[in-house]
Amino acid sequence: MAPLEEFGRIREWTAGRHSDTSLAAAGVKLGIGDDTAVVSGTSGLEWLLAVDTMVEGVHFRPETMEPEDIGYKALAANISDIAAMGGIPKHALVAISIPPQWDTSLLKRIFDGLYECAERYGVIVVGGDTTSAPESLVISVTIVGQVEAGKAIYRNGARPGHFIFLTGPTGLSAGGLHGMLQSEEHRRLVISPPPKRLISAHRRPNPSVKAGRLLITNGWGASLNDVSDGVSSEAWEIAEASDVKLVLHEASLPLAGELVGYAGQCNIPPLDWVLYGGEDYVLIGTAERKYEASMRETFRAEGIPLFIIGEVEAGSPGVDLEYGSGKRKPLEKRGYNHFPKG
Fold this sequence. Notes:
InterPro entries: PurM-like_C_dom, PurM-like_C_sf, PurM-like_N, PurM-like_N_sf, ThiL-like. The protein is α+β, with helices and mostly antiparallel strands and 342 residues long.
């Protein structure tokens, strides 16, 4: 039997473990399968729960990330999951496993970055755990957020006729990481370093909390996901959860000038980073067409980018890319995957 990819493994490990009755009795509104779990709260609110883990050599390398960046990004990735539900991040628990080569001064710098992110987004660190590790540093953050009861935006709300939007350009983080790795591996050669914007996008991502809140408070968001594993992968998740086809327009995908220029230097099509790069932490979602003008006006007034990049159609779940004069091709369900098939 062929190996299962990441989400296939999660389904195999977890599907059917709890009955619908036990989930309902525990107040679970939404369990495994979206950016966060949603659990009943009080005073007209629901709890949002999520956890993310960063492993040295898999999610970061000391050659490309300062210790402060590691801590900042560990929390930012979790905050982005709350943003993807339209919620407000509130509390965090931090668990860290420390190998011998990470001394006390480096660890303090990691927590300096983590608390910098916490202060920026109003998150309070309320506990955690510390253990030793034999070789690689591991940092895991559990986050708790809140959202108005019944208002969380799930992945399964896309419907035919909706438009598809992005709340910022993508591919910047992937381009920054590529450039830093190339500079490290070929440091004796004359290679242009990546633009500062690309490096910053990889090291210090900005979760789209404000954009998510605008979607909630105005009742615009029908489906939503954060771009952690790449536009193609996240669009596929919405398509499968909603049982629809998403059509992305190549001409409408935002291309940052620094990304296009640097991709050209690296002889890489910029669309590869835009569609299949990850860790941009902007939001991708769908909304009813009647809201388009209001969304554009409000996002512009708030200084938040908004790009309309396609539409939703009826059909078998999947993602198509429209290019040229109305030509189409299916997009691979490809992005970052810890357990690729094959």
